[in-house]
Write a structure and sequence with these properties.
By secondary structure, the chain is of the alpha+beta class. The chain is built from two helices and four strands; from the N terminus they run ββααββ. The protein has one domain (about 10-25, about 35-100). It is about 35% helix and about 40% strand.
């Protein structure tokens, strides 16, 4: 039987506050099999959306990309959960990365 595989479960959530408050909404999820793959998922998302952000949110995104990313990577290598957050207008965007064990799937059919 295959053994569980260490990895990371990554999610992106948004929550909007103000006149039209929207509760947390899951926007994306990703299963990463290494710390570099997990933090790269967040980095690609931040680079992709940064041109559409206001200056403050863009500064938050680039601050993590330049300064916070290495600390996130070190924490992931220690198998610690991490969170990256930015605020755009009245919307909080949160990426979470959690260490997990991926269990192998078992076939329902048995061979004779």
């Amino acid at each position: 039987m295959d053994k569980p595989t260490r990895g990371y479960w990554c999610e992106c959530w948004t929550e909007t506050f103000g006149e039209t408050t929207e509760g947390p909404a899951l926007r994306a999820s990703f299963d990463a099999y290494s710390a570099p793959q997990a933090d790269r998922w967040v980095a690609v998302a931040l680079r992709t959306i940064s041109p559409a952000l206001d200056p403050d949110a863009s500064d938050e995104a680039w601050a993590w990309l330049h300064d916070g990313r290495s600390e996130t990577r070190r924490a992931l290598l220690r198998h610690e959960p991490c969170t990256v957050m930015i605020t755009y207008a009245s919307t909080h965007i949160t990426w979470t990365i959690r260490p997990v064990l991926f269990l192998p799937l078992v076939s329902g059919a048995t061979e004779p």
